[in-house]
């Protein structure tokens, strides 16, 4: 499995922060890491929480970042 395509993941749960995604070497950070890293694209895998995540992290648009939601169909959200 390739782990070089995703640098890190974020999770609001403090119980997950400081751990790794199961089966990978992809670290889990607090959501504040997004402000620090300023990614071009934020991949949202829990598609059913898309609206909540986009609203909570709308500041990503300040540096031109976008959200990508691959499920149930590929969609980019500005």
Explain this structure.
By secondary structure, this protein is of the alpha/beta class. It contains two helices and five strands. A hairpin with a 5-residue loop joins strand 4 and strand 5. The longest helix has 7 residues.
Task: List the keywords.
5 strands; alpha/beta; 78 residues; two-stranded parallel sheet; three-stranded mixed sheet
Task: Draw up the topology in text.
Elements lengths: L8 E2 L17 E2 L3 H5 L3 E3 L6 H7 L9 E4 L5 E3 L1
Parallel strand pairs: 1-2, 3-4
Antiparallel strand pairs: 4-5
Q: How do you describe this structure in short?
A:
The chain has about 80 residues and is an alpha/beta fold. The protein is about 15% helix and about 20% strand.
Number of strands: 5
**Beta-strand proportion:** 15-25%
Major sheet details:
3 strands, mixed
Nearest-integer average pLDDT: 92
How would you describe the shape? globular
The strands making up the biggest β-sheet line up spatially as: 3-4-5
Straight-line N-to-C gap: 29 Å
Low-pLDDT residue intervals, each spanning 5 or more residues: none
């Amino acid at each position: 499995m390739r782990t070089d395509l995703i640098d890190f993941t974020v999770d609001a749960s403090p119980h997950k922060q400081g751990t790794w995604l199961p089966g990978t070497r992809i670290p889990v950070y607090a959501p504040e890491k997004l402000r620090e890293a300023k990614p071009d694209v934020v991949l949202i895998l829990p598609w059913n929480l898309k609206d909540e995540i986009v609203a909570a992290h709308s500041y990503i648009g300040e540096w031109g970042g976008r959200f990508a939601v691959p499920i149930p169909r590929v969609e980019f959200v500005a």
